[in-house]
Amino acid sequence: MSARQETPGSAEYGNLYELFRSRFPAERSRGFIVLEDGRAYSYADLEDISGRYARLLADLGVAKGERVAVQVEKSPEAIFLYLACLRAGAIILPLNPAYTKAEVGYFLGDAEPKVVVCRPEAEDAVREAARAAGVAHVLTLDQSDGGSLPERARDLTPIDGCVAAEADDVAAFLYTSGTTGRSKGAMLTHRNLGSNALALHKTWGFRSDDVLLHALPLFHTHGLFVATHCVLLNGTGMLFLPKFDADAIVRLLPRATVMMGVPTFYTRLLAHPAFTAEVCRNMRLFISGSAPLLEETFHAFRQRTGHTILERYGMTETGMNTSNPLDGERIAGTVGFPLPGVEARVCDENGKLLGPGEIGVIEVRGPNVFLGYWRMPEKTVAEFRPDGFFITGDVGKIDERGYIHIVGRAKDLIISGGFNVYPKEVELCIDRIDGVVESAVIGVPHPDFGEAVLAVVKRAPGRDDLTADAVVAACKTELANFKVPKHAHFVDELPRNAMGKVQKNELRARYADA
């Protein structure tokens, strides 16, 4: 079965920054970002700071289409740096601050950026990785407007406007781990990001008085693109938290109208004694994504607050694909309908279209779908059907009313706390540990993170001295914390089918209550 919504009118896409700028308030003194301590940045500040950063990038020799890697903590300056990359015609490569030196080294070597911006405390390690990858410049940025980036840009003259760009020029690389352990750089164009932002802004009914509560990270599609783009298109402001903090959320909710979060945010708010309907009295919309929202959370939230969470569905390669309706029934366990301009269908493994209620692989097509994987043409071709539909790898169905349901994930992807964890990458790390014969990494239910990463390990004969704590500790030296198994269980043999493939479904059932 397939579903589609028509695009509401047409839009011209050049440089994405020009689209945003066309929606900025006429009075540039209007607030853009307000921090919890009261510090504020206006749209005039946005234009000035991003313009100076863009000037610095140009002075460093960053030409149109060259990459700028960014591994910093969340701050207003990080958003201005993103906009500076757009204005300079550069391609931003946002990286999770939790990535290790080895992981960063891979990204720098693969993307070959001209500049990398990192936290001051990580400068030595990043410089070493940058030197090995041939990166020309390393700059620093902290959470308090400090570092060599703002210092060197402070007295520069902002650039005028932005570098001209075509709709299909690449604006961002987002790396997504592959099942082979090698991360792939998804190339997102100005058209991909712009069309998706316009569709979300319309679908979620943004108003001139909306204030977004922003507690998401900025290295991820959700926080950097989905949330921030809606505010920029709206020409309004946001309350800006460096990270999720339930106490701070409860304090700020009366001043906000819209909040976007991952399911973990909502489970933690429900556990907060001061989170009440009164706190939410000014709220217009709560949106959830990046991981499945449990029906229990959906119903408990509505009962507590009177608000029905709006769940949507997207992925790194496509941005957002679907959303439950703003006006209409939001059904627990579904991700709603395709966004304007997006087509979605469910097919079998051979691409045959399936009927209503039949379970298969979800495929999508639209202006939001990425250009392809950086320097992986064969992989790109393999992920698309001849008619242009992208094979998401997510398993689901479309019911008789057109609601899309995600019922599972192909390739055994784990989503923990809203972050994607590909088991093969963790397994490769574990299998290198002395005393390990082989491993299988699975996701198991977790009340806070949605899924927890769990390792099932076969030890070499006579190596009973290898402990679960040792396995976890070894992973922590090579992997970002969200990828590290919460625990390791040891088995004599991993269960296999007749073809010799490890039966992860059996392992998930066995350790569901671990």
Q: What would a concise description of this structure say?
A:
By secondary structure, the chain is of the alpha/beta class. Helix 4 runs parallel beside helix 5 and helix 7 packs across helix 8.
SSE order and pairing:
Elements: E1 2-4, H1 16-21, E2 31-35, E3 40-42, H2 43-59, E4 67-71, H3 76-88, E5 91-94, H4 101-111, E6 115-118, H5 123-133, E7 137-140, H6 148-153, E8 170-176, E9 184-189, H7 190-203, E10 211-214, H8 221-234, E11 237-240, H9 246-252, E12 258-261, H10 263-270, E13 285-288, H11 295-305, E14 310-315, E15 319-323, E16 337-338, E17 343-347, E18 360-365, E19 372-373, H12 377-382, E20 390-398, E21 404-409, E22 414-416, E23 419-421, H13 423-431, E24 436-446, E25 450-459, H14 468-476, E26 487-491, H15 504-510
Parallel strand pairs: 2-11, 4-5, 4-6, 6-7, 10-11, 10-12, 12-13, 13-14, 25-26
Antiparallel strand pairs: 1-17, 2-3, 8-9, 9-19, 14-15, 15-16, 17-18, 18-20, 20-21, 22-23, 24-25
Helix pairs in contact: 2-3, 4-5, 7-8, 10-11
Descriptors for this entry?
alpha/beta, 15 helices, GMP Synthetase, Chain A, domain 3, 25% strand, Rossmann fold, 29% helix, nine-stranded mixed beta sheet, five-stranded antiparallel beta sheet, 514 residues, globular, 26 strands, single chain
